[in-house]
Amino acid sequence: MDRPLIEISHLSKSYRRGDQVIPVLSDITFDIAAGEFLALIGPSGSGKSTLLNCIAGIDSLDAGSITVGGTDIATLSESELAVWRSRHVGFIFQFYNLIPVLTALENVELPLLLTSLSAAARRDHALAALAAVGLSDRTDHKPNQLSGGQQQRVAIARAIVTDPDIIVADEPTGDLDRVSAADVMALLKRLNADLGKTIVMVTHDHKAAEAAHLVRELDKGELRVAP
Amino acid sequence: MLLLRLILLNAFRHRLRAVLTIVGVAVALTAFGLLRTVLDAWHAGVEASSANRLVTRNAVSLTQPLPFAYKGRIRQVTGVDIVAAGGWFGGVYLDEKNFFPNFVVEADDFFKLYPELVVSPEEQKAFLSDRKAAIIGRKLAERFHWRIGDTVTLRGTIYPGQWPMTIRAIYKGARPDTDETVLYFHYSYLDETMKKRAPTRAGQVGFFMIGIRDATRAAEISKDIDALFRNSQAETLTETERAFQLGFVAMSEAILLAITAVSYVVIAIILAVAANTMAMSARERLGEFAVLKTLGFGAPALAGMLLAESLLLALAGTALAMAVLPPLAKGFAVGLAQYFPIFFVSPTTIMLQAAFGLAVGVLAAAVPAWRVSAVRIADAFRRIG
């Protein structure tokens, strides 16, 4: 049996507010197989975004470990984590988080600046990623010239342009109307099915969660299989 | 290219703020440059000094005379090449407001001592052969529209009476820091007239200008000269021309210190303004920096981007200041010629402008760059919602 892509073991995380310690995640243990499409659901404050951030290597753990592709990311330094993220993780945010002064093409090209690709190769990759999300005709548009759905598709192109193993998506449909949300979810499903990308998605939206193979619910920092 | 474009676009994202910052840096560095030029103008005499020239004056004070008879004894000191008597005349042309420096000199030796005063052989000959002749600087001639052959009458303030003289020569400075606003006339004219008008004041000079063969022996020769007149009625103080000029500058030390302080305060103020601009820019884009960090851009890359933006604005302002200062100083030079005969922007001032512009760019970005590189991604996303 293949080793899971992501192994989370006894993960605990809490925040401090003054003298007060607020536990967010308590002794979470679970695995995510390569090619999985996992949805994390749960009420606000349940810790699902924190868990996603830990998996993506942008937040630290208090206890436990997260091993991704055999690498225990909790042991990596800040600079090692930055390199690891650039090679292995694609990010999709609720509010797209595109750089407003750059065009769609430039936004997608941005992560490729950290690779050794030539300028021409970077451009070709970015154009291909935009084509994959159906935005070949919007390459020179700035984010404020695009609709919310189009901006999220640019963000998805940016997430896949480096061909990462994992795509993490934090409320990817949270800021979209129903039609755009359905388009985005269809796109994520296609990335999972056609390209074999492992997707971990946090969502409030049960309809969006239906696109996933597996849904897990976080409640008060504890994980359970969603009903 | 994309990274450079991103830096450029971010630097000018708030155009008005960026332009105001650039203009602020330019104004501050121009003001700094002008103040430095004023300081340089004050020190022009010092800079124009020759290491091969000494000045002997009365040890009590510059206003006390020395006997002309000292000249022969000074000339006999080993290492002394030329000795020329001279003195501040302090004459006024028509009105006090027409101030310009005027001196009496022993012309023959004076020209040998001051080769930086360039004059044609014909004019020099005409000046030397006329006891009532004067030689004036080019700028002084321009100021009063004086020409060769014009008669100028100075009213004496130290030496009473009217002192008519004929302009026989106009000199040019061989170097940019040569004062071209001075009038010199013959010591013999002064002395012979004083013999008639006030015989007790005849045979006296203000100072001796001394040419020495070896500049490295200046201290030793100075000591030898002063030793000659120790315990006499008029003891002497001999120093290098540079030290002599610095003595004049030292009289205005408080003003010079104030100007120096203001010039640095101006830099400090613009540093604060530029730092505020960069801090605001970084704070507004904290989310974007968090995104870049998420994508894998490390702390040094983010700090470098912010530093590049800061340098772009600061150096644009610096370039503007460096372009504006020379013509502005030229305008000042015309307006202030009476007070600052030597007023030009020195290469050192230009270099200091560039150095301070660079320093403003680097220091303004230092704290915001540190904050941006230190920010934790999850915290930044939580803060921006």
From TrEMBL, chain A:
InterPro entries: AAA+_ATPase (IPR003593), ABC_transporter-like_ATP-bd (IPR003439), ABC_transporter-like_CS (IPR017871), ABC_transpr_LolD-like (IPR015854), MacB-like_ATP-bd (IPR017911), P-loop_NTPase (IPR027417). This is ABC-type antimicrobial peptide transport system, ATPase component. Keywords: ATP-binding, Nucleotide-binding, Transport. GO terms for cellular component: membrane protein complex; plasma membrane. SMART domains: AAA. The keyword Cytoplasm does not apply. One of its GO terms (molecular function) is ATP hydrolysis activity. Residues 6-227 form the ABC transporter domain. The keyword Nucleotide-binding applies. Belongs to the ABC transporter superfamily. Macrolide exporter (TC 3.A.1.122) family. Gene3D superfamilies: P-loop containing nucleotide triphosphate hydrolases (3.40.50.300). PROSITE patterns: ABC_TRANSPORTER_1, ABC_TRANSPORTER_2. Pfam families: ABC_tran (PF00005).
From TrEMBL, chain B:
Pfam families: FtsX (PF02687), MacB_PCD (PF12704). Residues 20-227 form the MacB-like periplasmic core domain. InterPro entries: ABC-4/HrtB_transporter (IPR051125), ABC3_permease_C (IPR003838), MacB_PCD (IPR025857). Residues 262-373 form the ABC3 transporter permease C-terminal domain. Coiled coil: none annotated. One of its GO terms (cellular component) is plasma membrane. This is ABC-type transport system, involved in lipoprotein release, permease component.
